[in-house]
């Protein structure tokens, strides 16, 4: 619950016990002018359900970290205490048998760990922290278009899955924005993987509820087809191509592109003997950096611009074959 204080006044937090005992009143702030305030709450039952869902997910996969700010917030301290209690009473022996562990970390430390690590763990964090960090990790791993968002009940009986970047029927950024551009006749490049995997997530859950092997085969084949197109065939949308090549380009055509492998840190993911073909917009910031005639698939550490200056780059990149300029 949030509140806009219109002006001078006192903000208080009051707890009134249902048994009629003395109420607790805490003075939050004396407003001298207009301002805002927010109140949050949670319950032992809700946090315990969250803990069980987190431990169950980690038990089938990997290590679990719980990230809070319990050093300065009693609110977070309750999450810490309940998670530890649930772990000790229910999951400790199962984790030890599986060769994994549970650990509490401050959210500050967890953020840096997530960025520098190679993954392989489950992180249980509060809702707002999760909204922010999940998008950072998705983009850091390639693209937000590769991540699904799933809601799961504590018993795992009901799930809701969607693409993290939204879909054509909701007011969320990426896909809706691309769709509006497409309606105007403009060329777009929209990664469909998250939307496809949101559907396969639902199909997989349905197979568990119905024991439907035929539906399970559809789920397996559909996900495998997506992986094959990107990893084996090297065909991908603009967001992934730019992430792999580590360069900026406002116009990348065709929408589905094949990329070269020489010198790429992700070369093991891509087929050999493929060539990136770029068409650079006349106002693109990248254009002055590229000569008109460039040999493709040559590993370099610098770009030479048109006036002869050499611009060093932090790491090896691909020198693309420029096939023409667009107006």
From the spread of the alpha carbons, the general shape counts as globular
Radius of gyration: 26 Å
In whole angstroms, how far apart are the ends? Answer: 51 Å
- Quaternary assembly: single chain
The secondary-structure element order is EEEEHEHEHEHEEHHHEHEEEEE
Catalytic activity: D-threo-isocitrate + NADP(+) = 2-oxoglutarate + CO2 + NADPH
GO biological process, one term: isocitrate metabolic process
Cofactor: Mg(2+); Mn(2+)
Family: Belongs to the isocitrate and isopropylmalate dehydrogenases family.
How would you characterize the overall build of this protein?
This is isocitrate dehydrogenase (NADP(+)). Keywords: Magnesium, Manganese, Metal-binding, NADP, Oxidoreductase, Tricarboxylic acid cycle. It catalyses: D-threo-isocitrate + NADP(+) = 2-oxoglutarate + CO2 + NADPH. By secondary structure, the protein is α/β, with parallel strands linked by helices. The chain folds into four domains: 2-38, no CATH class; 44-140, no CATH class; 142-232, no CATH class; 235-326, no CATH class. 37% of the residues lie in helices and 24% in strands. The chain is built from eight helices and 15 strands. A three-stranded parallel β-sheet has the order 6-5-7. Strand 13 and strand 14 form a beta hairpin. The radius of gyration is 26 Å and the shape is globular. The termini are far apart.
């Amino acid at each position: 619950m949030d509140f806009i204080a219109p002006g001078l006044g006192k903000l208080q937090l009051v707890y009134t016990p249902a048994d009629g005992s003395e109420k607790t009143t805490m003075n939050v702030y004396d407003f001298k002018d207009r301002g805002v305030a927010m109140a949050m709450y949670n319950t032992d039952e809700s946090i315990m359900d969250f803990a069980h869902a987190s431990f169950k997910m980690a038990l089938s996969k990997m290590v679990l970290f719980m990230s809070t700010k319990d050093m300065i917030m009693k609110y977070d301290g309750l999450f810490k205490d309940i998670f530890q209690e649930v772990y000790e009473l229910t999951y400790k022996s199962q984790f030890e048998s599986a060769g994994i562990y549970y650990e509490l970390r401050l959210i500050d430390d967890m953020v840096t760990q997530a960025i520098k690590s190679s993954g392989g763990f489950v992180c249980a964090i509060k809702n707002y922290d999760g909204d922010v960090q999940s998008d950072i990790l998705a983009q850091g791993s390639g693209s937000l278009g590769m991540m699904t968002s799933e809601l799961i009940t504590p018993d795992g009986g009901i799930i809701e899955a969607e693409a993290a970047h939204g879909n054509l029927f909701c007011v969320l950024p990426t896909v809706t924005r691309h769709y509006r551009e497409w309606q105007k006749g403009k060329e777009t490049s929209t990664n469909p993987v998250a939307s496809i995997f949101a559907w396969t997530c639902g199909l997989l859950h349905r197979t568990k509820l119905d024991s439907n092997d035929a539906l399970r085969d559809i789920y397996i084949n559909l996900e495998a087809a997506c992986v094959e197109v990107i990893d084996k065939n090297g065909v991908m949308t603009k967001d992934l191509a730019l992430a792999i090549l580590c360069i900026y380009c406002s116009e990348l055509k065709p929408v589905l592109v094949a990329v070269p492998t020489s010198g790429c840190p992700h070369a093991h993911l891509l087929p050999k003997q493929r060539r990136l073909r770029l068409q650079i917009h006349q106002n693109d910031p990248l254009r002055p950096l590229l000569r008109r005639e460039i040999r493709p698939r040559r590993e370099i550490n610098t770009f030479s611009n048109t006036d002869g200056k050499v611009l060093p780059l932090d790491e090896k990149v691909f020198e693309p074959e420029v096939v023409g300029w667009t107006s």
